[in-house]
Backbone:
C-alpha cells in the first residue's frame, strides 16, 4: 500500500475569509470565490505527481456562533453544549458544500471531521491519530479537513482552526509544502494598507530572518507585528516550507500548487 | 473531568431501514419515522442519569450508491475514488439532517464521522482512537455516529456500518446496554412471516442459548438462521447487554432507553 509514498504531498489551506462572506452574521458562502477556487484546485491537482490535503476555514459558518456563545473559551453552562453541537453541525454543512463542488470537479475530496478524534489541551491540538488519513492519501483520496469545535481536556471545548490543523498535519505527514491561501499577498516590510512604501518579502529564510524581525517588530507597533513575527517563527519551526499567497487573485492557487514562487515563501 | 463516569452509558443504534426510505433509489429520509424517533430520544434522554451515544444507519443514503459502485468490495478503478468520496458526503448530508432535528429537541447531538480516524482491515474495524469521544461524553455531549465508507488496509475501502460501530464502541466505552432499533420485534423461535406459531424470545442468556440454537439452526434453513445465530453469538461475545427492539412502533425507543424489557434482550 506504500506505493504512492514517493509523490510529493501538498497541504493547501484556504481561509474562511476567502470562501465565505466573513462579514455576514448568518452562515453565507462566498460563492464566486468558492466556485473559482474549486476549479483552480481541480485544474492544478495532478494525481500522478502529487498528493493533496485540503483544509478550509469556516468564516461566517463559525465565527458568529462562536463569538455569541463563547465556546472557544470553554464550556461552563449547560446551554453551551447545544451551541457546541450546533457549531459542529454548521461546519459540516459548509464542508458538504465544499466537497460537493470539489467532487464535481473530479477531485476525490473526502470529508474528514477532525473533532471526531482530535484532542486539545488549553486550546492547543495535542493528539490526532492520523493512520486513517495516511491510508486515505495512499489510496489516492484528497482528505478535506476544516475548522471545528473540539474537545479540550482543560476547558472542555476549544476551536480547532484550520490554521492549527495545517502545520500539525503537514508536519506529521511530512508534507513538501503548506500553502496558505489568504486575503493578503504575503508578508510585507510594513503594513501595506498604511504605508505606500511597504514591499512584499518574497522569501524568509535563515539568512534574512533577522532583517524580517527588524521590519516586523519596529518600536511603534510592537504588539501587532510582534504577533506576526511570532507566527512566522512558528511556521519556520514546523520544519516544512510554507507559502503565503493571496487566494482572492484568480489563478494564484493554480500557480502555488504548480510550484511557482508567488507571495511569501517561508523556508524552515 | 471524570465526574460523570458514574452515569450509565447507553448506546442506541437505529437502522437505516427505519429512518430512511430504504426502497428509494435516491437518498430519501423517512421523515415521519425520523421526526418521531428524535422526539422519543429527546424525551427519554435524561442527562443527569445517563450518557448516550447515538448511531444511525444510512439506508437509501448509502446502499444504492455502494451497490452501484462496488466500493464495499474495495477500490480497483480510478472512478471508484470519486464514488467513495461522494458516498461519505452523502452520509454527512443525512447525519446533518439527523443532528439538526436532535439539537432542536434539546439533545447536544455532536456529529462524529468515524471514517476520519477508523482503520479497517478485510472489512473489519480494527482501530479507532476513542479518546476524543470519551472526552465528549464526559463533558455531556451525545456523540452521533453513522455508517460510513472507510479506509481498509487490505482492500483500500470498505463499508463501516453502524452495526459494526455499535458493539465496538459499546465494548470500548463499557456501555451498560446497546439498544438495536430495527424493523423487527426481536428474535423469534422461527420466521414470524412464514410461521404463525413463531414466538418472540424475550431473553437469550447462558441458560437458554442451546435451545435458541435449536430454534434458529433447524435443518431446513441452515444458511439463513445459522447467520442469525452467528450474529447472536457475536453480540453475546461483546460482553455487553444488547436489546433488539422494533423502532417502527411508537414509544419503543423511549421504553428501551428507560430500561423496559421489550423485544429481545441478549445477556452476555
Residues:
Amino acid at each position: 500500500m506504500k506505493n504512492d509514498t514517493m509523490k510529493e504531498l501538498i497541504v493547501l489551506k484556504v481561509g474562511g475569509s476567502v470562501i465565505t462572506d466573513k462579514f455576514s452574521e448568518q452562515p453565507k458562502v462566498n460563492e464566486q470565490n468558492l466556485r473559482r477556487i474549486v476549479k483552480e484546485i481541480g485544474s492544478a491537482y495532478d494525481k500522478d505527481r502529487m498528493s493533496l490535503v485540503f483544509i478550509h476555514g469556516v468564516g461566517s459558518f463559525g465565527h458568529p456562533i462562536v463569538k455569541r456563545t463563547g465556546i472557544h473559551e470553554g464550556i461552563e453552562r449547560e446551554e453551551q453544549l447545544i451551541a457546541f453541537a450546533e457549531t459542529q453541525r454548521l461546519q459540516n454543512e459548509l464542508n458538504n458544500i465544499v466537497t460537493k463542488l470539489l467532487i464535481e470537479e473530479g477531485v476525490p475530496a473526502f470529508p474528514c471531521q477532525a473533532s471526531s478524534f482530535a484532542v486539545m489541551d488549553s486550546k492547543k491540538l495535542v493528539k490526532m491519530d492520523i493512520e486513517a488519513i495516511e491510508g486515505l492519501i495512499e489510496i489516492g483520496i484528497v482528505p478535506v479537513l476544516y475548522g471545528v469545535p473540539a474537545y479540550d481536556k482543560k476547558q472542555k471545548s476549544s476551536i480547532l482552526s484550520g490554521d492549527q490543523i495545517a502545520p500539525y498535519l503537514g508536519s506529521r505527514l511530512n508534507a513538501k509544502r503548506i500553502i496558505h491561501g489568504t486575503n493578503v499577498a504575503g508578508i510585507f516590510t510594513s503594513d501595506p494598507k498604511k504605508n505606500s512604501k511597504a514591499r512584499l518579502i518574497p522569501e524568509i529564510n535563515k539568512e534574512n530572518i533577522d532583517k524580517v524581525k527588524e521590519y516586523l517588530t519596529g518600536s511603534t507597533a510592537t504588539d501587532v507585528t510582534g504577533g506576526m513575527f511570532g507566527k512566522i517563527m512558528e511556521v519556520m519551526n514546523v520544519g516544512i516550507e510554507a507559502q503565503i499567497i493571496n487566494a482572492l487573485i484568480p489563478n494564484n492557487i493554480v500557480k502555488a500548487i504548480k510550484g511557482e514562487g508567488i507571495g511569501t515563501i517561508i523556508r524552515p
